[in-house]
Design goal:
Elements (H helix, E strand, L loop, with lengths): L1 E2 L2 E2 L14 E7 L5 E7 L5 E6 L4 H13 L4 E4 L5 E6 L6 E5 L12 E10 L1
Antiparallel strand pairs: 1-2, 1-6, 3-4, 5-9, 6-7, 7-9, 8-9
Length: 121
């Protein structure tokens, strides 16, 4: 998969099926009737990717990209689908937890619980 210009191993999209493209606003009228307004969302779909086998070098590259790229860019998933996204700064856009407790890890050290958070724009 490709994140902007960074190639990383394919990662599962963990929240792919927990999203609705519709938004609803409800309120009660003075008569007590329920008023419901439904609209199509134009952007803002969250995309959360997780993997457990990225290297420290790959994670550092993604962290640097998230700090240097506050605007939009494209990602292409392993199945060929592409999205225009930005990093989701409402939470840490990149998180990673080491697989092993290493005193002096190098760039080839594997990490676990790597999570990447994006939103479509």
């Amino acid at each position: 998969m490709i994140i902007d210009t960074i190639t990383v191993p394919d990662m599962p999209w963990i929240n792919e099926y927990s999203y609705s493209s519709r938004v609803a606003n409800t309120q009660y009228a003075g008569s007590g009737a329920l008023l419901v307004e439904v609209a199509q969302k134009q952007a803002g779909r969250p995309i959360v990717l997780q993997d457990d086998m990225l290297t420290r070098a790959e994670v550092n590259q993604l962290l640097a990209h998230s700090e240097a790229t506050p605007g939009s860019f494209d990602i292409t998933l392993g199945d060929g689908r592409s999205f225009t996204v930005m990093w989701d700064y409402s939470n840490a856009p990149v998180t990673a937890t080491p697989l092993l407790d290493e005193v002096d890890p190098d760039n080839d050290s594997l990490l676990m619980a790597v999570t990447l958070r994006f939103i479509t724009v």
